[in-house]
Amino acid sequence: MCAIVTKKIRLVEILAFSNIMKVCGLSDLHGNFIDIPECDVLCICGDIVGLVEQRSIEQSRHWWYNRFTSWVNRLPCKKVIITPGNHDFFLEDAYKKGYLEELCKDLSARTNGKLEILINSEYTYEGIKFYGCPFIRPIKFQNGRWAFEDDYNEESNICCYDNIPKDTDVLLTHDNPYYNGILNYLIPKNIKYHLYGHWHEGTSFIENNKYRHNCSILNDMYNIKDNFKPIVIDVNKDIVPIKEDEIPLPVTGDIIDDEQNLTDEDYELDTESN
């Protein structure tokens, strides 16, 4: 059944429905390829490569070029946006030795442009700005070094977190802001969505319309969490605000499907319509 609109109609909800980007968040895969729900964008917040391959550059290269890209191609999403973690030594090697751009082009080509890698960089997709920062607070209770520790100066409080753009819509960091006070302090306060991992059993928090999600899929024993469900958020795409009195009204006779559940308060119906 259809109704013919003869008066005012509220289009805000109709516009908003097509203005949602469904974003899924994962972190700390450590080589585990899991299924995800259908979405527009999958964000992965680091520690992606397998534990066996992580410290071998050659083994990691093969893993990223073959196993990872094959999984990405199977995922039910349009884009996969990642920022590395402290286990992703191959991506750190590419970043430090100047072949990151070449690597990004290669992996993007193998996924038909589906994959984006962010290391202190941003990417805008369908009007939503994503920013990725892999650097972590140095791990002092373990021997040896980890990847992406070197861009952090705990004494001076000067680090890459200062460079996070204030107009970021979705922030990806590997480190958890609740275990890293400097990260928590330096994140621009207006950023609504922050996805992270690193501490597998870390905290998620929603307060004052701001969303902070620990996306780790593993527990502290490196097993997939019981009853794990990927984080899924609905991100509103920014559009120019329209005042209600500026919304263009459909001319008399425009057809509106009654499945939109419009009410008599929103419009008047031609009583002769079917």
Please characterize this protein's 3D structure.
- By secondary structure, the protein is α/β, with parallel strands linked by helices.
- The chain has two domains: 1-19 and 239-274, no CATH class; 21-221, Purple Acid Phosphatase, chain A, domain 2 (4-Layer Sandwich), CATH 3.60.21.
- Helix content is 18%, strand content 22%.
- The protein has five helices and 15 strands.
- The protein has a six-stranded mixed beta sheet with strand order 6-7-10-11-13-12, with no helix packed on it. A five-stranded mixed beta sheet has the order 5-4-3-2-14. A two-stranded antiparallel sheet has the order 1-15.
- A hairpin with a 2-residue loop joins strand 12 and strand 13 (210-214).
- It is globular and about 45 Å long.
- It starts with a strand and ends in a 17-residue tail after the last strand.
- Residues 1-16 and 239-274 have low confidence and may be disordered.
CATH architecture of the largest domain: 4-Layer Sandwich
| Number of domains as seen in the coordinates | 2
State the helix count: 5
**Unreliable runs, pLDDT <50, ≥5 residues?**
1-16, 239-274
What is the highest CATH level, the class of the largest domain?
Alpha Beta
Taking all Cα atoms into account, the compactness measure Rg is: 22 Å
Task: Give the CA-CA distance, first to last residue.
Answer: 6 Å
What letter string, H or E per element, gives the SSE order? EHEEHEHHEEEEEEHEEEEE
Mass-distribution shape: globular
Strand content: 15-25%
Q: Looking across the biggest beta sheet, what order are the strands in?
A: 6-7-10-11-13-12
Q: Give the integer mean of the pLDDT values.
A: 82
Please give the share of residues in helix: 10-25%
* CATH fold name of the largest domain: Purple Acid Phosphatase, chain A, domain 2
Tell me the major beta sheet: 6 strands, mixed
